[in-house]
Amino acid sequence: MTRPQAANRTRLYIVIGVLAVAVLVGLFFGFFRGGSSTPAAPTSASYPVSVQGVVVTVGVPTAPTTIDIYEDFLCPVCGRFESQNGGDLRQAVTDGKAKVRYHQVAILNRSTNPPGYSTRAANAAICAAEAKANLYPAYHDKLFADQPSEGSAGLTDQELIAMGQALGLGADFAQCVTSTKHKPDVLAATQAAVKDPSLVPPGSDGFGTPTVQVNGKIVNDWTDSSWLANAIK
Amino acid sequence: MTASRWQPAEGSSRGRTTLLTVLAHLPVSQRWLDLGGTVARFGLAAVFGASGGIKAADPYQTYVAVKAYDIMPASAVELMATMQPWFELALGLLLLLGVGLRVVSVISALLLLIFMAGVIQAWARGLSIDCGCFGGGGNVVPKATSYVTELLRDTGFETLAAWLIIRPISWLSLDGWLGRAQAPDLAEGGLQT
Looking at chain A from residue 126 to 185, which residues have their Cβ under 8 Å from any Cβ of chain B? Predict the structure, then answer.
């Protein structure tokens, strides 16, 4: 015969034990995957920035590692990606260890009301790079820092312009934003990205943002914070 | 012995009288009720296993989903998004094992209540979010919300949990193996915490 008290206590210990292990595992992954916090970036980039089509390349061209990042400025996971990796990426670029090619794509146009914020934001980022290349990194970061939520109206053109003006962008930038000068390029680049099988990680059902490549090879798990350290090793 | 197993123990019956009393007098054989408990237990285990597994596999999306409820500061969102998947997985495991079933069911029911409260507050405040219950989550365009469906689904899960709280008896459980049959009063009283 089992002693009831003992059986009862055993059950309680098992329940507490399993829950405690869950908490420890959670904490472990929290620390393990958590990004580091880095000091705020200077407004003006200290490294070369160039723009070609929808792709803005930051960092010295001779940097040993090339990182391609496809982002939609409305995509909340991209915002999270930036808050976790933005500082480390900036550091790697500043140190000349990597150059990063930011592909401004727009896959979430239907997720704002009215639709189209993704394209307008991508356009504005290219406008910033075109107007004053060294202000692009700060503008890019600002777009994510002030990211509107899906389902909202997104930022207005006036707000997009004001954010740029606060950084020192001028009238040509404003004109570029209101005319959505790069809209055709953004749409074409998005179409191309969606159709490119090399941008779909194995096990995924299609192109999504963020998509990260290191030297042309897709990064399967950029949620694991060691991806960047491995890339620039 | 078997027939009296899940009736309220003397002295503890007053708190949860009606439903138990009704159940006790239903002309349903114990075996069928045991089967019902087994289905509820494995069903709820699958629910937490799936939802915890999906969330644990995609920590970024989980963060976005928690953040969209817009009730906690960033650091708390971080903690919640980190812990919640593993907590759900742990509940799923405990349900699968069938250990401390009543206490585990109470915890499950409370967790589900918290989830439902989160959805209701989002709905009431006019947020448009996806609950992220089984992956996904985050803000969506207003017409893409499905609060009613999400709440009905959670109500279904609450029903399973409620069954197991009232009658934490099922087949293939560690509780049974640990000798509940020899201690009918404890099977009813659950864990004496």
Answer: 149-152
Domain ranges for chain B? 31-184
Contact A112, A150 (CB under 8 A): yes
Distances (CA, A) of A133 to A19, A40, A52, B37: 52, 19, 11, 65
Q: Which residue of A has its CA nearest to B145?
A: A151
* Residue A38 scores a pLDDT above 80: no
d(CA A71, CA A204): 17
Cβ distance B64 to A76 less than 8 Å, yes or no, reads yes
User: Which CATH code of 3.40.50.1010, 3.40.50.1360, 3.40.30.10, 3.40.309.10 fits the domain covering A49-231?
Assistant: 3.40.30.10
**Half-sphere exposure of B88 toward its Cβ, with a 13 Å CA cutoff?**
27
* Nearest CB neighbour to A151, from listed B84, B97, B141: B141
Q: Touching check for A39 and chain B: CB below 8 Å?
A: no
Residue of B nearest to A19 (CA): B90
More confident residue, B109 or B181: B109
Q: How many CB atoms lie within 10 A of CB A181?
A: 15
Strand partners, A100: A58, A67
B64-99: per-residue pLDDT in tens? Answer: 999 999 999 988 998 999 999 999 999 999 999 999
Task: Report the pLDDT value the prediction gives residue B10, as an integer from 0 to 100.
Answer: 45
Q: Which residue of B has its CA nearest to A109?
A: B141
Query: SS3 for A211?
Result: strand
- pLDDT tens digit sequence for A181-194: 999 999 999 999 99
Query: Looking at CA atoms only, how far is residue A77 from chain B in angstroms?
Result: 6
Q: Which strand (E) or helix (H) includes residue B120? A: helix B101-124
The sign of the CA dihedral B13, B16, B20, B22 is: positive
Q: What is the reported pLDDT for B6?
A: 47
Asked if the Cβ–Cβ distance from B94 to A29 is below 8 Å, we say no
Torsion over CA: A35, A41, A45, A49 (sign): positive
Which of A8, A34, A151 is nearest residue B140 as measured by Cβ atoms? A151
Nearest to B59 among A7, A22, A223 (CB): A223
